[in-house]
Every structure is written in C-alpha cells, then in structure tokens.
Amino acid sequence: MTQLSEHQFTVVIKKDCPTCEMIETVLAELIATYPGKVTIYVQDDPSFPESIENKIDDTSLEFSYRNNIEIVPTLICSSESKESARTYGWDKAEWRRLTNLSSLGESLDSFKPGCGSKTLEPGMEEQLIARFDDKLLSSRNIQLADLEDDAEGCYERGWSDGLPVIPPTRVRVIRMLKGTDRSPGEIIGNIPPDNAPCTIEKVAINAVLAGCKPEYFPIVLASVQAALQDKFCMHGLLCTTYFSGPVMIVNGPVVQQVGLNNGINALGQGSRANATIGRALQLLIRNVGGGVPGGIDRAVMGNPGKYTFCFAEDESDADWSTLAQDRGFERSESVINLFAGEGLQPIVDQKSRDPDSLARNMAASLRAVVNTKLYGVADAVLVVCPEHRRVFREGGWNKDDLKNALYDNLMTPGSELILGAQGIAEGMPEKFENKVIGKFRDDGLHITSTGSKAGMFSAIISGWVASGERGSQLVSQRI
Questions:
Q1: How confident is the model at residue 4 (pLDDT cuts 50, 70, 90)?
Q2: Which of 64, 78, 125, 320 lies in disulfide reach of 8, CB 3.0 to 4.6 Å?
Q3: What mean pLDDT do residues 118-145 have?
Q4: Do 94 and 108 touch, CB atoms closer than 8 A?
Q5: Using one digit for the tens of pLDDT, what is the confidence trace for 80-96?
Q6: Considering the chain, what percentage of its residues have pLDDT values greater than 70?
Q7: How far apart are CA 50 and CA 255, in angstroms?
Q8: pLDDT for the residue numbered 5
Q9: 21 - beta bridge partners?
Q10: Cis peptide before 49 (omega within 30 of 0)
Q11: What single-letter DSSP state applies at residue 374?
Q12: pLDDT band, residue 48 (cuts 50/70/90)
C-alpha cells in the first residue's frame, strides 16, 4: 500500500441522509489524522456538518457528476491525483482498511447503507449532461432575448409548421436522445430536397419540436429511414403539385408500448403519439431538408395530413394478416409503413352482411381514386373498419380473398375509360380502347385495419399520381 502521507481522501455527503449525519464524528477524526489531505463535498447544504469547517459547496453537483457519485456518503482514496479506491455507505471494516485507521468509528454500527446521490434524482441526469458535457451535442445554441417568448421565437425563426412547437432546449434534446442507443453524431442520411446531411441529434431536435416523448424516438428514427428509401421518392413527393404527403401506419408490440391509437378516432385528433410522431418527420423535412411550402413544396392545395398523418393498425384479429405481415415481417416485429397518400375518402356500407356485397361496394368506391377514368396511375390504401372486417371473417374470407375480389371487380373495359368517353375529356390513352384494364398495378392496393368497434365505415387513402416503380411505393422499416 502507498505511504499514508501520499494519500488524499475525498468524501461526498448530503445533509438529507441519515448515514451522512451518523458519520460526522468519523469525518472529524479523519480530518484530525490527515490534516490538509481530506476534502468534504456537500451536495445539498454547504453548512452541513456544522462541526467541520472548510467544506466545498457541491450544490451545482458538478463534482458529483464528473466523478460518477451514485451513493452518499462516498469515500474516495487517491494517490498522485489518481483514484485508487472508493467505498460508499458506511462499512466500518472498509473505511478502516482504506484509511488505515483501526479504531475509526468505534462507537458506530458495523454497517449502514447510504442514500442515493442527488445526481440520480428524476430528470437530473439530463440537466447535468446539459450543464457539464460540452461534447455530446454539436448543434449551435441560439440565445433568445430576455423578453422574447420561446414559442414565438421558434415560429419567427421558421422552425414551425404553423402550429406552436416545443422549444428544443439542451435538456429536452438530451432527454430525447435517451430513447436510442445510437450516437448523436451518427449521420442517418441526407434529407431532401436539399440533401442536407442529418445526424441523430438533428432528428432528436425535431422530435422535441413536434412534442414527442423519448419512448417515441425509435419510431421517429424508423420513419426517417423509411422516407429515405429510394422507393419512397421523398424528394419527388415534396416537389409535386399534388395533394400527397407521408402517411405512417404502425404495426407490432410498439403500438401498445407507446400508446398509439388504433381504435376510436384513430386517424383524428386526441392521441399524442399519433400526432407527434407523424409531425416529427414533416418538421425534419422542413427544418433540415428545406422542404418549405411555397419553396420546393409546390402543392396546389396540399391536405391536412401534411401536418401529421400517423395511425396504428388494429391487430386484434389473429386470422387477419397485418400490413407488416403482407410486407414480409413477422407479427411479433414492430414496423412502420410509409405511404405517399392524401386525405380520406369514406366508404359507407351498413347493409352488406355477406363478403361479396361488401367487396363490390368497396371496389365501386375505389374506382374514384384520383379519377374514375384514370387507371394504374395511383396506388391506394384501403382502411377496413373492425365491423366490416367482421363481415369478411364471418363469411369465411381472409385478406387475400378480399384483395382478389377487389382486383376482379375493378377490371374495366378500356372503351369506358379512354379520352372523351362518357363525355369526359380526361381519361386513358386511346391505345387502351380494346383492352380490359385493372385499376391498380399488382402491388398497388394495400389493405389495413383500424378504428372503432362500432360503426360500419371504412375508408380509402388515395395515393400519389406518381405511384409505382417510377414514382413512390409503400415502404416498410423495422423499428
């Protein structure tokens, strides 16, 4: 063991700890034995303990944070400015061994556990990282004026989609980053339309702006990865004059874990997870990629879903395959599916009690996707409500049966669809006049299920007119 004269002893305590109060006499004995070699740091009350002078105020918790103090009291033994050993709580034998004082704490019990360090209090870790770790985050800090409103400041700087956002303080961004093990500096990809390199930290900033919780962050990251797949064609979707924007459909255990709505009003307001996860991608495209309406975003009208469009699938029917399963994933996997879509088109059918009638009605409604005379130009998502799904199940149909019936019912003579037919100038080229045409390409119609258990109302999410191999396709990403 190193000579005692070379040792330095550091003790971290707090007043709000019975064990720290109990060892006051021990600290006094240690200071008397090793004058000038004992340093006492106090986390909460610099006047504690009153019998000992020259304590160091650690109410900022900087020393405790930098030295990874988890329990008080903690005794640290150092030699040549390097820590050689430490113990925490009161363990008489261990304190005696480290200090080489065989009678230290003679009147005290042999053992008493300590208390949690103030550095471990709820929410404290992020605050300490924000104060004392200058290397974790690389984004520039923007100082608002003293009288400037935080929310208005964000809006004036162009970080908002038009609705108020949550100011992305260092603490909030650090807290968001706890939702992933990925490094803040990792480049997740180049965000269109400017193809700006985007780090995990930048995604976290926009997730904060959107109002996400840290537990939502893995879904947000997966949505960004999905949007950056070439098949999704995010750049083209931004530039189009059409209505479409990203539509998110989430599958798997993560739905229950974060509370995504897949029931009543699933495509409407009221669910923080649905609203903020969908919004985070849109804000990222705007703030990092430069996709600003009136700039590169040239939509003639747009649609309200361009604020946020995210919902979860109702997976309560084990015999009905999920959208993720249709895409090749297991039911046990958490998956986000991204579709270039627009607003809802309702399908009302409160009369059909057999699958064939209901499928024919749905097919009739699907003819209106984009235009009743334009076929093969846009994909679609059919959202089947639970009550309609029950009709199919009770009639012995599964999802494949429904899809096959829809494709069959949507086959249409080209003579009814060509330019000028039915007195309508719009339509298919004349070369299709003598052919029978399907409304959707082979992988152009997707079926999912969500909504309330009461109400026989399904819906269609019409796709972008540039759907398919030359435009945007539905993509899926494991979370």
A1: low
A2: 78
A3: 93
A4: no
A5: 889 999 999 999 999 99
A6: 99
A7: 54
A8: 53
A9: none
A10: yes
A11: -
A12: very high
Stated as kind and residue range, the H or E segment containing 40 is strand 38-42
Which element (helix H / strand E) includes 324? Answer: helix 323-326
d(CA 88, CA 241) in angstroms, rounded, equals 65
What does residue 62 show for φ and ψ, rounded to 5 degrees? -65, -50
CA dihedral for 156, 161, 162, 168, sign (positive or negative):
negative
Using DSSP, state whether 381 is helix, strand or coil: strand
Residue 2 has pLDDT above 50, yes or no: no
Task: For the chain, list the domains and their CATH numbers.
Answer: 4-120 (3.40.30.10), 122-241+268-308 (no CATH), 335-479 (3.30.1330)
Pairing of strands 380-384, 445-449: parallel
C-alpha–C-alpha distance, residues 241 and 12, integer Å: 64
Question: In which residue are the tokens 């989430």 written?
Answer: 250
Q: Are 239 and 295 in contact (CB under 8 A)?
A: no
DSSP state letters, 63-125: HHHHTT--EESEEEEEETTEEEEEEESEEHHHHHHHHT-TTTTTTS-SEE--EE-GGGSTTHH
d(CA 420, CA 326): 38
What percentage of the chain carries pLDDT values higher than 90?
Answer: 94
pLDDT at 331: 97
Q: 132 pLDDT exceeds 60?
A: yes
Amino acid at 409: N
In which residue are the tokens 């999704």 written?
232
Cβ proximity of 284 and 204 under 8 Å: no
Average pLDDT of the chain, as a whole number = 95
pLDDT above 60 (res 394): yes
Query: What integer is the mean pLDDT of 53-79?
Result: 97
Is-cis flag, bond preceding 167, omega within 30?
no
What's the CA gap between 260 and 243, in Å, rounded? 25
How far apart are the C-alpha atoms of 436 and 32, rounded to whole Å? Answer: 100
Q: Residue 224: how many CB atoms within 10 A of its CB?
A: 26
* Residue 363 predicted with pLDDT over 90: yes
- Amino acid identity of residue 274, one-letter, is N
d(CA 244, CA 300): 10
What single DSSP character describes residue 431? G
Complete DSSP assignment for 246-306: EEEEEESTHHHHHT---STTTTSS--HHHHHHHHHHHHHHHHTT---BTTTB--SS--GGG
Per-residue confidence at 1, pLDDT binned at 50, 70, 90? very low
CA-CA distance, 284 to 291, in Å (whole number)?
9
Q: Which residues of 126-141 are buried (b: 16+ CB within 10 A; e: fewer)?
A: bbbbbeeeeeebeeee
Dig out the tokens for 66 from the structure.
Answer: 């930098």
Angle between helices 170-177 and 200-210 (to 10 degrees): 110
